[in-house]
Design brief:
The complex is a heterodimer.
Chain A lengths: L8 H80 L2 H15 L3 E8 L4 E5 L13 H8 L2 E3 L12 E9 L2 E9 L1 H9 L2 E2 L3 E6 L20 H10 L2 E2 L5 E6 L5 E9 L4 E8 H4 L1 H88 L2 H4 L4 H30 L5 E4 L1 H18 L2 E7 L6 E4 H18 L5 E10 L2 E8 L6 H4 L19 H11 L3 E7 L3 E9 L14 H5 L1
Parallel strand pairs in A: 13-15
Antiparallel strand pairs in A: 1-2, 1-5, 3-4, 4-5, 6-7, 7-11, 8-9, 9-10, 10-11, 12-14, 15-16, 16-18, 17-18
Helix pairs in contact in A: 1-2, 1-7, 7-9, 10-11, 11-13
Chain B lengths: L10 E5 L3 H13 L3 E5 L2 H10 L5 E5 L7 H11 L4 E6 L4 H9 L4 E4 L4 H34 L2
Parallel strand pairs in B: 1-2, 1-3, 3-4, 4-5
Helix pairs in contact in B: 2-3, 3-4
Classes of the chains: A alpha+beta, B alpha/beta.
């Protein structure tokens, strides 16, 4: 608020900004908190679900691989137990057994061979020419001869192709012999390669040196870390889960991470690893996040639009209320001004009437004395009489002025009754016609027929309209003109319009025209109270008195009065004592 | 009914705190063949009236310092019910003057008033008062005569 008690643009802008900010903050913060909380909970649940799923996947596949290896080992063991050294050392027999194995288990078994304790292969069945091969220096042989069975890592060997060996040690007298079988690398790799999830999920097997034991669909990526380090990482840092499943995440570049889930197989010699990009594993979560964000964005935009719209509406109403308040304040000031002037007028009227009464009485006394014989012959008697008459006349004028002042101060309160407006106007036109005739003024009337009657005080209405008519005739001076009086119904209001074709009122005076004591008439011709009184009367009736004027064209006074008005007004004290007497 | 000319001179009491007004008005009324006594306050008026029982009409200003016109009127009417009172008022006290009529004032006039109007009311009030006096006197006489057996 300013000192002027009305809202400035700056204040409204500031209010607008504050309302927008408050709406946005109050709406968006809970939205963000709720969204973030829900998303956080969802994300945690989703992570748990994905990891659980991947763990189960890795666990089941690692068991499958272990089962596969155990199965192959059992086959070879069964072969040695059922056929014995003598038969297996016979190459045709061995080839026959290989054919049976291949018939029963497909191409999983590539070849088989019988190796002595010295590492010499004495019988061989398979597609390669490895008969009589010497494995005494082969690593797999050294390890095989020391345990009952052995499954090697993948290696190239004499044939120059990746493969691995299942070897079973058997006793022959005090010595040993070994039945070894080569497992088809492609068949084994297929077991692992078939594990595919999403866009980037795949599996592979590492040995203790971190070397790949299968051909993965893509190189395992750990950024600068190689697969050996990865193997070590699992044992060093990854979380340990029931079932020996290990899990870790590693950045492979600055933007994304890989998930690694690993399970030991082949009694811990190998590590079955499943790798998937996090973005891929959590693609649905990302989709949900994007959708939530989009919805939240739309919500935020909606809130912002609503804040602006709401604020605009509130500011509009505040501005309107302020404007109405200003108008009310203006009216209150106006009313207060009129009231204080009224009180002052009442005091002045009383104080003036007493000295005026004395002056008039003194003049009367002088008049009485002049009637004495001694003055009859005086040459100035006529002049004295004229002067005394003048004093009386001016005394009467003072009385009239004070009477008007008092009318203004106390308003004329009279009985409310049904008034036929057109009849009232016609009477007033008839009253004014003589005066109009002398002023060269032509009176035109335009009365709407069948107007409803109005609940009002006849004498007050007469006073107002007659005052306007007289002012209009005065305004047209000696040159004359046209006075138009009309009555119309506009909605629930009755409108009486009094227009003249006089000089018009300058704009500077229009604002002051209803102020008490404001007059443009020559001194002694007007008190400046007539229009103030009219204004007060019409306001009291719940109506409006408005003026519009164009200099050089004329002035129009318009009275608007509601038809249902003051129905409960009670007859009050009649100001004019003469009426009371009657 | 008696005419003005047939009446003996009315005795008027003029009550107003405005000395100038009282003095001039007294002279003017006397010039019109009225007997006039004066008072400058309500209290003084009541005291004077106690001494002059034959006052016909009181011309009483409404607004006076101390006891105002209305209060004076009330007391006056209690002490002298038959006396007629014409209230005299400036405009501002018209309502008080009307209130005065409720308490038995004969009429009221506004300052400054025309002498002819005032004279008319004084004579009218005097006639009314004297009519009442006569009727009461007649009633008394009839009562006395009745007691004596006439």
């Amino acid at each position: 608020m300013t000192k002027d008690n009305h809202l400035t643009d700056h204040y409204l802008h500031s209010l607008n900004r504050n309302i927008i900010l408050i709406i946005i903050i109050v709406s968006i913060i809970p939205l963000l908190l709720v969204s973030i909380t829900i998303y956080g909970q969802f994300r945690a649940s989703y992570h748990e679900k994905v990891y659980d799923h991947l763990r189960e996947l890795v666990q089941s596949h690692s068991q499958n691989i272990d089962n596969y290896l155990q199965e192959k080992l059992s086959d070879i063991r069964f072969l040695t137990d059922s056929c014995g050294w003598e038969n297996l050392a016979d190459e045709p027999f061995l080839q026959e057994r290989l054919a049976v194995l291949q018939k029963d288990f497909g191409q999983d078994f590539v070849d088989i061979g019988v190796v002595t304790a010295l590492g010499e292969q004495i019988a061989y069945a398979g597609p390669f020419k490895l008969g009589k091969a010497d494995y005494s220096n082969a690593e797999w042989f050294r390890k095989s001869i020391q345990s009952e069975y052995f499954i090697s890592d993948v290696f190239l060997g004499l044939r120059g192709l990746p493969h691995f060996i299942i070897a079973v040690r058997n006793n022959l007298g005090n010595g040993h012999w070994i039945l070894r079988a080569t497992i088809d690398f492609v068949a084994f790799t297929t077991l692992v390669e078939n594990i595919r999830l999403g866009q980037t999920g795949f599996a592979f097997i590492l040995n203790k040196e971190g070397k790949l034991q299968t051909t993965p669909m893509a190189r395992p990526t750990m950024g600068s870390i190689d697969s050996k380090t990865l193997y070590e990482e699992f044992y060093a840092k990854s979380h340990v889960f029931p079932g020996k499943i290990r899990i870790t995440t590693k950045s492979y570049n600055s933007q994304d991470k890989n998930i690694y889930i690993a399970a030991p197989i082949k009694n811990g010699d190998w590590l079955f690893v499943y790798q998937q990009r996090m973005a891929d594993a959590f693609a649905d979560l990302r989709k949900t996040f994007m959708m939530t964000t989009a919805l939240m964005f739309v919500g935020v935009i909606g809130i912002i639009i609503m804040a602006f719209t709401l604020s605009k509406m509130i500011i509009g109403r505040v501005a309107k209320a302020d404007s109405e308040k200003q108008m009310m304040s203006k009216k209150v000031v106006e009313t207060g001004k009129l009231a204080s002037v009224g009180e002052l007028a009442a005091g002045i009227a009383h104080e003036i009437n007493n000295p005026v009464a004395i002056m008039v009485e003194e003049a009367g006394w002088m008049g009485d004395l002049l009637e004495e014989e001694e003055f009859e012959k005086s040459e100035n008697t006529d002049e004295f009489e004229r002067a005394i008459a003048q004093i009386k006349t001016q005394g009467k004028r003072c009385k009239e002025i004070t009477h008007k002042l008092l009318s203004f101060a106390r308003k004329t309160d009279t009985t409310v009754e049904d008034v036929n407006i057109n009849e009232l106007l016609e009477e007033l036109v008839a009253l004014a016609s003589q005066r109009a005739k002398y002023g060269m003024v032509e009176i035109e009337t335009d009365f709407q027929q069948n107007l409803p009657s109005l609940r009002a005080s006849i004498s007050e209405l007469q006073q107002v309209v007659f005052n306007l008519i007289n002012n209009a005739i005065d305004a047209m001076g000696h040159d004359g003109g046209t006075l138009t009086i009309s009555s119309h119904q506009r909605g629930n209001d009755l409108t009486i319009v009094v227009s003249d074709t006089g000089e018009g009122i300058p704009e500077a005076n229009l604002d002051r025209i209803f102020d008490p004591f404001f007059t443009t008439k020559p001194v002694g011709k007007g008190t400046g109270l007539g229009l103030s009184i009219c204004y007060g009367i019409i306001e009291k009736m719940g109506g409006k008195l408005e003026v519009s004027s164009t200099v050089g064209t004329g002035t129009t006074f318009s009275i608007s009065l509601p038809f249902q008005t003051d129905s409960d007004r009670q007859p009050e004290v009649i100001e004019n004592p003469e009426l009371m007497k009657k | 009914m008696n005419t003005t000319s047939a009446m003996s001179t009315p005795l008027v009491m003029l009550v107003d705190d405005e000395v100038g007004f009282v003095e001039t008005m007294t002279k003017r009324l006397k010039k019109r063949d009225l007997e006039v006594i004066t008072a400058f306050s309500g209290k003084e008026a009541l005291e004077t009236l106690a001494e002059h029982h034959n006052v016909d009409v009181v011309i009483l200003d409404v607004k006076m310092p101390g006891m105002d016109g209305i209060e004076t009127l009330k007391k006056m009417k209690v002490a002298h019910p038959l006396i007629e009172v014409i209230m005299l008022t400036a405009h501002a006290t018209v309502e008080s003057a009307i209130e005065g009529m409720r308490f038995g004032a004969f009429d009221y006039l506004m300052k400054p008033c025309a002498m002819e109007e005032l004279m008319g009311k004084v004579h009218e009030a005097t006639r009314k008062k004297r009519n009442h006096d006569e009727k009461i006197q007649e009633a008394h006489i009839k009562e006395i005569l009745a007691k004596r057996g006439f």
